[in-house]
Sequence to fold (145 residues):
Amino acid sequence: MPFPDDVDIDRPSPIEQLQLAFSVHIAREIVAADGILDIDEMKLLMLVFPDRLMRSCRFVGPDTELTEAFHRAHVEAVRTLPRILDTQQKLDLITLFHRTCVADGELHPKELSVLKGAARILEVDPMLLKVHLKGLHGSLTSLRG
Fold:
């Protein structure tokens, strides 16, 4: 199972913590990108990034604000993840970001721009990204079908 489904919620590994910090940061950017706070997007974030997992990493404080530990992990993730994740792990993150983009039923261009920016940070080959996104769009279309 891909990240974050395979994470031990009480004991995420150091790499999983970096993936979590990076993913939460990108997902929040995606949710904010279109300027509309959608309840379906918020539900997805709470499902994918449960409070218990965020607390086990010390990424949220008592009032659910993001902590300094979260911000440090995000900076480290940007530096480290492109080197340590394999291609499939990177594409799994892109799939997660795509799910966040379409949680409200549409793919807004600004959300897609954030997703593509994340792919650049992860150093995903642009042609591979294009093929992967086409497959994701195709599966979304067939589900609506």
Summary: The two ends are 26 Å apart (CA to CA).
